[in-house]
């Protein structure tokens, strides 16, 4: 057993709903690893669980993404040793001094990837991976529009797609954020102005695919930016959930296609997880993507980190340090 602490939500609500509590972490059970946390990744999905947008039993140990070192190994686990550096993006309980995870969900970290970089890049990088590689086959010359392009997922997805030869139009919340996005075209206009602004920078061409992690606020603009038979990829709800969609609206807009994916379905098996991690770490090693840690907070200041994230005051990734 290990004495430590964790951050939990006993009742859904704002950032103040996050509470610290002392906790004794038991020895890992069969198939499990006990990890000493070195860094935690902050993600919008943490907000969704905190507020209750995504249902989960209470009390809820917050967080899904963390990296650290193995300190204990449960019965039946093979291929890991005490001291190994690993990361995990599945399950809960990442906001803690220690964490128990399933060995099948552990990702072994290369020596070139620090715990902070892993915590800053795994969930967002795995998301960028399935968006770029697994939704549809994209070819050089295809045109993609990416919302929140300066954010955690966007800052990885933009260079990932450009490495494939995709033409990327990036949309960022402010001119300051837009200035740091290495896309073919960068826009920072309002959502209402976006469809016309897209046509102006592309000489009248609409997007083949739109990657939208914003949700409610950007939904109409995203659809208006798509060519006929284009694909809308709605993968997040930063501004709130997308309202109910009438399929006839998609028909009238040009036989548009829509997918609402979730990362869990793309790393559901150990083989899928390993392949996804390999593709991300390969692109980090080759310099295709460079995870940017824009902010660091003490883990116990997670409520402040949540406020900054919801106010769109962050850029790149945010890590929490125990």
Please, how many domains?
2
Structural class: alpha/beta
**CATH homology superfamily of the largest domain:** Medium-chain alcohol dehydrogenases, catalytic domain
Order of helices and strands: EEEHEEEEEHEHEHEHEHEHEHEHE
* Shape descriptor: globular
Mean pLDDT rating: 94
CATH fold group of the largest domain:
Quinone Oxidoreductase, Chain A, domain 1
Q: Which CATH class of the largest domain applies here?
A: Alpha Beta
Number of strands: 16
At CATH level 2, the architecture of the largest domain is Alpha-Beta Complex
Percent of residues in beta strands: 25-35%
**Measured distance between first and last alpha carbons:** 19 Å
| Largest pleated sheet | 7 strands, mixed
Number of helices: 9
Radius of gyration: 20 Å
Report on the structure:
The structure is a single chain. With 322 residues, this protein is an alpha/beta fold. The protein folds into two domains: 2-124 and 264-321, Medium-chain alcohol dehydrogenases, catalytic domain (Quinone Oxidoreductase, Chain A, domain 1), CATH 3.90.180.10; 136-260, NAD(P)-binding Rossmann-like Domain (Rossmann fold, 3-Layer(aba) Sandwich), CATH 3.40.50.720. It is built from nine helices and 16 strands. Strands 3, 5, 6, 7, 8, 15 and 16 form a seven-stranded mixed beta sheet that branches. A six-stranded parallel beta sheet has the order 11-10-9-12-13-14, with helices on both faces. Helix 2 (115-133) packs across helix 3 (154-163) and helix 2 crosses helix 8 (270-285). The longest helix has 19 residues, at 115-133. The mean pLDDT is 94.
């Amino acid at each position: 057993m290990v004495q430590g602490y964790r951050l939990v939500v006993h009742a859904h609500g704002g950032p103040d709903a996050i509470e610290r509590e002392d906790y004794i972490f038991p020895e890992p059970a069969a198939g499990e690893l006990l990890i000493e946390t070195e860094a935690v990744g902050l993600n919008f999905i943490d907000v969704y669980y905190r507020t209750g947008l995504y249902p989960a039993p209470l009390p809820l140990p917050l967080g899904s993404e963390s990296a650290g070192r193995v300190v204990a190994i449960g019965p039946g686990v093979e291929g890991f040793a005490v001291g190994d550096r690993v990361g995990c993006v599945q399950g809960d309980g990442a906001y803690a001094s220690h964490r128990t995870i399933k060995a099948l969900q552990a990702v072994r970290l290369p020596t070139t990837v620090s715990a902070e970089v892993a915590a800053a890049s795994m969930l967002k990088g795995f998301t960028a991976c399935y968006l770029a590689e697994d939704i549809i086959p994209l070819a050089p010359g295809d045109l993609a529009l990416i919302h929140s392009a300066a954010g955690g997922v966007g800052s990885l997805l933009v260079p990932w797609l450009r490495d494939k030869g995709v033409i990327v139009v990036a949309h960022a919340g402010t001119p300051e954020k837009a200035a740091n996005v290495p896309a073919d075209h960068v826009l920072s206009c309002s959502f209402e102005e976006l469809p016309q602004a897209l046509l102006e920078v592309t000489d009248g061409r609409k997007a083949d695919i739109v990657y939208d992690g914003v949700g409610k606020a950007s939904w109409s603009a995203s659809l208006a930016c798509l060519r006929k038979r284009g694909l809308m990829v709605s993968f997040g709800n930063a501004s709130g959930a997308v309202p109910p969609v009438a399929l006839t609206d998609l028909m009238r807009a040009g036989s548009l296609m829509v997918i609402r994916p979730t990362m869990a379905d793309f790393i559901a098996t150990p083989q899928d997880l390993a392949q996804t991690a390999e593709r991300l770490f390969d692109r980090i090693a080759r310099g295709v993507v460079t995870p940017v840690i824009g902010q660091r907070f003490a883990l116990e200041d997670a409520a402040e980190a949540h406020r900054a994230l919801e106010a769109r005051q962050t850029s790149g990734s945010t890590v929490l340090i125990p």
